[in-house]
Design a protein that fits this description.
209 residues; mainly alpha
């Protein structure tokens, strides 16, 4: 009975997320995807020229932005803008939660095993089904992700399960669950608490621009 499809404009944003998740960025293709969405271009330039990014010189074009920021930061702001845009008609709490999850996972990525998977993307996509009001399996048919990320997003188990469960436990205030999952990952309670606080502050800063 699920006949709902990903709206065309939202599908473009999801393709942007897919493009920046590739091991090697194709700058030309990425620039083309961005230019096809005026709202994305606007948001990119607006955020890049804001104090949140600390760029002294104004950014005048997409190619200029890519050149100035470099690959790592390009991936970051594309994720940010694509998520904000795809969630425009969604309660802000949902988008903020998705971004908090993403940043929390990213902050702990260097301390936990995750192979080649992108923990920021895992956290970000963990609520994309709620934001789009579609089954996760349908969404992942349009935006392929690596096997481990797909498994955990579909409710399965794998290498990313401990981190995914830690994210959910901390968010829900399940302190015993948080402690148990943190211990399995070799993390202290203070490391987890600090990462979550930093993630919330990061989201507040970006959404206040």
């Amino acid at each position: 009975m699920q006949a709902k499809e990903v709206p065309a404009n939202r599908l473009n944003y999801m393709r942007l997320l897919q493009a920046i998740s590739q091991p090697e960025l194709n700058i030309r293709d990425l620039e083309t995807l961005i230019k096809h969405e005026a709202s994305v271009c606007y948001r990119l330039l607006r955020y890049l020229n804001s104090a949140a990014f600390g760029i002294r010189n104004e950014v005048h074009s997409i190619r200029h932005a890519i050149t100035m920021l470099g690959e790592r930061e390009v991936r970051r702001w594309i994720r940010l803008v694509a998520t904000l845009t795809v969630g425009e008609n969604t309660p802000s709490e949902l988008v903020n939660t998705a971004m908090t999850r993403a940043r929390f996972c990213e902050l702990l990525a260097e301390r936990v095993p995750h192979g080649d998977s992108d923990l920021f993307l895992m956290g970000l996509l963990s609520m994309i089904d709620t934001i789009l009001e579609m089954p996760m399996v349908s969404i992942l048919e349009n935006v392929p992700v690596d096997f481990e990320t797909k498994a955990v997003l579909l409710g399965g188990t794998g290498k990313l399960s401990p981190m995914y469960q830690l994210m959910l436990a901390r968010e829900s205030g399940d302190w015993q669950g948080t402690a148990d999952h943190a211990q399995k990952l070799g993390l202290s309670d203070s490391e987890v608490a600090e990462a979550y606080w930093q993630a919330m502050q990061w989201v507040r800063q970006l959404t206040s621009v």
